[in-house]
Amino acid sequence: MKLNYALIGLMLAFTGSSVNAETVHLSSLDWAPYSGKSLADQGASVVVAKAAFKAMGHELVVDFFPWSRAVKLASESGSKYAGYFPEYLYESSEFTFSASMGQGPLGLVENKSSPITWSQVADLANFKLGVVQDYVNTEELDALIASGSIKPQTVTSDEINVQKVAGGRIDIAVIDANVLSYMLANNNKLASAKEKVQMNTKLLTNKDLYIAFRNDADGKKWQAIYNEGLGKIDINALMSAHLK
What we know:
By secondary structure, the protein is an alpha/beta fold. It is 36% helix and 23% strand. The strands form two sheets. Strands 5, 6, 7, 8, 9 and 10 form a six-stranded mixed β-sheet that branches. The longest helix has 16 residues, at 5-20. The radius of gyration is 21 Å and the shape is globular.
């Protein structure tokens, strides 16, 4: 009997991919337009992450929590969550970071009636500054905060900071420009703030976004798989299509 080697090869490849296919779980937060349970395709960063894992034959499932909870769940030994995202790069013994999965413009939201001028990060000590609890900002800003040179007001969400800036309770707050744009266009709680706030003209930086994988054997396995998958997709095209 003549064997159809092409067909057999195809069947073996299909069977192999089915057997080897796994589901990876990551935790995240509602941080539109990058991630969110109610967003189209769960947000731009989730689209990128799912595409990278799919390119390697695996499925990604994302669960959404308040930020501190998302980080804690991913850090626990034996957790089903191999990591959390989207995150900025920072020094950590608990997590190992993926390759960059896109960028976000990090800056300062200010009141339109009283825009600020600054030249270096240390100048921000002259203003009432808001930050979000457990968010990584920039290395320089976080170092100044840790040293006490800058003493920010800490809240639990970007939404609260925008409300405080709009109400004149603080001068500025650290926020991603895409996050602010999305919030002002879609968050009914900020309807009154829409005409009162804006991004400061000077950015802190363009921050790369990452998945923080737990720094253990399982986390490192998924980190390697994910990084290879990122090389097989068009990150910028996927991000741009979902940040509109």
